[in-house]
Amino acid sequence: MTMTRTPQRVAEPPTTGLRPRRRTWGQALRRDWQLYSLAVLPLLFFLIFRYLPMIGNVIAFRRYEPGGDLLGEYWVGLRYFEMFLNDPTFWQVFANTVIIGGLTLLFCFPLPIVLALLLNEVRTRWLKGFVQTISYLPHFLSIVVIAGLIFQTLAVDGVVNQGLRALGQDPVAFMQDPAWFRTIYVSSEVWQTVGWGTILYLAALTTIDNDLYEQASIDGANRWRQTWHVTLPGIRPTMITLLILNIGTFLAVGFEKILLLYNPLTYSTGDVVATYLYRVGIVSGSFSYAAAIGLFESLIGLALVLGANTISRRTVGTSLW
Amino acid sequence: MRPTRGYRVFQAVNGFVLAGVVVVTLFPFVNIVARSFSGEHEIRSGQVTLWPKGFNLTTYQNVMSDPLFWINYRNTVVYTVVATAISLVLTTCYAYVLSKHRLRGRALLVGVAVFTMFFNGGLIPNYVLVSSLELRNTLWAIVLPNAINVFNLLVMKAFFESLPTELEEAAAVDGLGTYGILARIVLPLSKAVLATMLLFYAVQFWNSWFAGFLYMDRQELFPVTVYLRNLIAGATSGTDITASSETALQVAASIQAVTIVLTMLPIMLVYPFIQRYFVSGVMLGAVKG
């Protein structure tokens, strides 16, 4: 019975730009109903768990009470948006988000490129493989384990403080000190992601034509100039694609990691939009207010991806779609 | 081409830098293992670096004799197995449909999935949804909201597209329907990508903590990652309102170290075998969908 119903769900919106042989929807359904039926459950997943929450954002414009109507009780217009725009804490967490996001982009985007270039110069195959294997490792661990490692390493009795003591310095309570939070966040992010980030660059590097290097060296280019004029242009599409993706997730800074690492003492530098809306919404139960903040954040994120993609398509001709 | 002097110097420097990367990456792991085998007093006085001081196994015995730890560890196994199985089936079905270029409406079906990579409902609407579907405190709160990972979906789609179409056409001529072709021709040819997807999902669900943290109110339902999270939170921010009261006490550093080691152990054991599948999966996924 699902099989006869499904096709209609798929059939609703008209599509443009079809494949060569045109068929009417009726013919397509009769011919491919088995294929469409395979899409039913996945489509239900997307509708319920991805698109319904998007619609659920209307509670940002409506008064929602826990246990009440899923889509809120009555319209309040932009009241919740005015609330957060006039909320000084919101602006502080917004500034924190931009700073942490900016620092992450500044370090986590270029360092994998550098590491990939260095790895590419290693001529011993097993050595290259060994370094890669080790540097990928942190990517496979739970963020909770990573947070645990950070706490243990930076504890007052941890290795970093042992080092400081050996140098005759006083131990530092890193995790309680707002001045250290961003440094800890960004450097642990680099530690965690740099190796994994090299994969696509290393793949792109193998596709560069060897003749280009030979020609460059005949023209008298040394290794450095070959890197500059052959290697870097060769991986430029990959760089731009990853840059667009990075810019798109710029404001969605590691929510889970910050939630694990921060505490009330480090709110002043560590609290970001996502963690603030978690506390406002889930912990304090102001769902509508938090939904308004979340919607604002998602829309900025979407605008950033679309903007970066458009600029990149117009200027360098590479884009995600 | 003979390497120049400058290039040889560069090679040496490069070797040092990469050795540095390896040491910095591994250091925290070696340190945590050393701490897990050390005495609490030796840890507190800052003596443990790379080798255990005051070697003992009592902390391991203590952690492993905590019934809650075992219950949560078992929960993680159960959640991972169920979630991985469901995710694998749904992802395979949808990826197969998306790989059929002749299918009418395919572009729309792809769009439905890809759009969710760039825009999502956000934390609050998701929370409200899961709560009002009464999924809280059930396995389904962890399984269903993350059933399909779009990146994995695109990897699988790319793989199915790379299969020779002649095989499927021949099977269709011989009278097999779509289900038959998928079950008897395509899936047997796709063991490699199925294994890769199995690993992707299993690692994802094994490592996840936030869904358990958000949607489970009772300790005996937590995955082990939330158990670990509460240990860490209890020891570092006693004022954290979300930490349950019994973990708000100071937790011994050695107990934390042991729990960290035990939580990451399964991943570390399989890591050497699974790593290359992940790498090939990432490269397959990078092919534009």
UniProtKB/TrEMBL annotation, chain A:
Protein name per Swiss-Prot or TrEMBL: Putative aldouronate transport system permease protein
CC annotations in GO: plasma membrane
Membrane topology qualifier: Multi-pass membrane protein
This protein's UniProt keywords: Cell membrane, Membrane, Transmembrane, Transmembrane helix, Transport
Annotated Pfam families: BPD_transp_1 (PF00528)
Lineage top rank: taxon: Bacteria
Family listed: Belongs to the binding-protein-dependent transport system permease family.
Domain (ABC transmembrane type-1) ranges: 94-308
Keyword Nucleus in record: no
Bilayer-crossing regions: 33-52, 93-119, 139-160, 242-262, 282-306
Biological process per Gene Ontology, one example term: transmembrane transport
Protein location: Cell membrane
Keyword Disulfide bond: no
InterPro entries: ABC_transporter_permease, MetI-like, MetI-like_sf
UniProtKB/TrEMBL annotation, chain B:
Family: Belongs to the binding-protein-dependent transport system permease family.
GO biological process: transmembrane transport
PROSITE patterns tied to this protein: ABC_TM1
InterPro entries recorded: MetI-like, MetI-like_sf
Pfam families: BPD_transp_1
GO CC term (a single one): plasma membrane
Lipid biosynthesis in keyword set: no
Membrane topology classification: Multi-pass membrane protein
Main location: membrane
Domain ABC transmembrane type-1: from-to ranges: 73-270
Cellular location(s): Cell membrane
Source species of the chain: Actinoplanes lobatus
Signal peptide: none
Protein name: Putative aldouronate transport system permease protein
CDD domains to which the protein is assigned, alphabetical: TM_PBP2 (cd06261)
